[in-house]
Amino acid sequence: MNRFLKVGLLLFLAGPLFAAPKVQSVSFTTRDGWALSASYLPAQADEKTVILLHDLNKKKEEFASLEGDLAKGGFGYLALDLRGHGQSTGRGSVKSFEKEGVDNPFNKMVQDVEAAVTFLKSKNVPLDKIALLGAGLGAQVAMKGALLTGVQTVALISPSANIRDVLVIPSIRLYKGDLLIAAGSADRKGFLEASVIRNVAFLTTGEGKVTFLTAYDLTSHEMLDKYLRPSILQWFKTPHKPDLAPDIITTMPVTDTSGIPVEKSTTEQALIPSILGAQ
Predict the structure, then answer these.
(1) Out of 31, 86, 138, 171, which could bridge 59 as a Cys pair, Cβ 3.0 to 4.6 Å?
(2) 238-258 burial by CB neighbour count: b if 16+ within 10 A, else e?
(3) Which domains does the chain have, with CATH numbers?
């Protein structure tokens, strides 16, 4: 047989062995009985797999653009419909969920994260190769889920102090992993709350572990799609920057409203904008 034909035949036969992973429609069950629908793309080589958590009243398809970028970068992803959303099934829809209470259905979404991590572990994805990214409500759930599961790489897109009684700051106080926070400055209240979250994180996680991204307009999925995708992918590759100093800690004195130099305080209370307390 001609040598070139042999090479071509070998490449044809070997092709499927080197084919890129394909997106799979999967489902898994939470401890309290919700059947969650998800799209799963295995990671290539030694890259991370990102669990994607959508905003309130959204669904997994909101991440279509980011999923394309993750796939091109060799990352895997697991985009799921949170309980009460999309194709996930269980006890009703999100419209019937109780909006208040520390144990309401929104707080129980932390079990959705737990089930997603368990699913990835069943696919032989180690914990240190799992990351979380949440938008809006998904950011709140991602932060709580990180503490429950031990995931050490978390991206919060448009987080708030409180969405449906899902609180972020108590989890931030305990979290020690790498953290990205992104907020749009046109949403003044949301931006201030995200800044508070960032400031608390700077005090608790250690230098070089917190990254803060801003955009002028848009929030949540829209901000992610329009402005943040390239930066997010780069951050997933190198989330921890040991030489990065927090931008809120300086050696220079600061000035109060009367123009008198005062010492920089590193207490959490001093880093929280007083405007929030007035609202």
Answers:
(1) 86
(2) ebbeeeeebebeeeeeeeeee
(3) 20-92+100-246 (3.40.50.1820)
